[in-house]
């Protein structure tokens, strides 16, 4: 399991949103963010804290909990809630208001080596988002030396496959249903076109 390569440490708290709840409008409404952050994300954090109270996992960073419970059938609920708390924190940082940002030169080159072009990379992310049956996440990851697109179901994380996450898009229905109803493709396209925080991707890559 490749949890040690992450250059972040997320604690068992609901982190502050890196922007106002209405900052991602019109792509994602304040109402969606209010429920998604204030109910869903908070719910995972609260449930995790209840599950780990009085255990050795109490006060452990999320990455360490995930690493120690990953694949263990007696700790599924702890893993799922820790992973969902981690995934949402990572998702908020993957997005950026006001049109997102452009990839740095180094990142742009890396994207071109791996996918041919930024458009091809976005297309692969969009295709994976549609191919994910039911709830889950779409990821841009570093796998050995190459960038790749992968998807995970439910609370799944790329670290389980020894890949380093660089960017994620939440494709659970709660992420888009109030704004787009059943039109997941429209939500994903709008996010990819106008909200991606490529600086965050570059930071995660260390370039
Ligand atoms: Mn979500």
Number of helices: 8
**N-to-C span:** 23 Å
User: Within the largest sheet, what's the order of strands?
Assistant: 2-1-3
What about the largest sheet? 3 strands, antiparallel
Heteromolecules bound: manganese (II) ion
Give the helices and strands as they follow along the chain.
Answer: HHHHHEEEHHH
Quick structural gist:
The protein has helices at 30-52, 62-69, 76-94, 105-115, 118-131, 177-180, 184-194, 198-205, and strands at residues 136-143, 146-153, 164-170.
Notable traits:
single chain, 207 residues, mainly alpha, Helix Hairpins, minor pseudopilin epsh fold, 2 domains, three-stranded antiparallel β-sheet, 8 helices, 47% helix, 11% strand, globular, binds manganese (II) ion
Describe the protein's architecture and organization.
The chain has 207 residues and is mainly alpha-helical. The protein contains eight helices and three strands. It folds into two domains: 3-8 and 29-94, Fe,Mn superoxide dismutase (SOD) domain (Helix Hairpins), CATH 1.10.287.990; 105-205, 3-Layer(bab) Sandwich (minor pseudopilin epsh fold). It has helices spanning 30-52, 62-69, 76-94, 105-115, 118-131, 177-180, 184-194, 198-205; strands at residues 136-143, 146-153, 164-170. It has a three-stranded antiparallel β-sheet with strand order 2-1-3. Helix 1 packs antiparallel against helix 3 and helix 2 (62-69) crosses helix 3. The chain starts with 29 loop residues before the first helix and ends with a helix. Bound molecules: manganese (II) ion (MN). The site of manganese (II) ion has 7 residues, from helix 1. Residues 36, 40, 88, 170, 172, 174-175 line the site of manganese (II) ion.
């Amino acid at each position: 399991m490749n949890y040690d390569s992450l250059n972040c440490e997320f604690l068992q708290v609901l982190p502050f949103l890196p922007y106002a709840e209405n900052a991602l409008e019109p792509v994602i409404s304040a109402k969606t963010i209010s429920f998604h952050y204030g109910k869903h994300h908070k719910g995972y954090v609260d449930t995790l804290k209840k599950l780990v109270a009085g255990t050795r996992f109490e006060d452990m960073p999320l990455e360490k909990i995930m690493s120690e419970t990953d694949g263990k059938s007696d700790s599924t609920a702890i893993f799922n809630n820790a992973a969902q708390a981690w995934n949402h924190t990572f998702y908020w940082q993957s997005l950026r208001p006001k049109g997102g940002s452009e990839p740095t030169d180094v990142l742009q080159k890396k994207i071109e080596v791996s996918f041919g072009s930024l458009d091809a990379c976005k297309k692969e992310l969009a295709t994976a988002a549609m191919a994910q049956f039911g709830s889950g996440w779409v990821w841009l990851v570093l796998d050995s030396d190459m960038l790749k697109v992968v998807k995970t179901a439910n609370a799944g994380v790329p670290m389980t496959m020894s890949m380093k996450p660089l960017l994620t898009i939440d494709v659970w229905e709660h992420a888009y249903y109030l704004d787009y109803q059943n039109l997941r493709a429209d939500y994903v396209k709008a996010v990819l076109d106008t909200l991606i925080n490529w600086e965050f991707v570059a930071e995660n890559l260390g370039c």
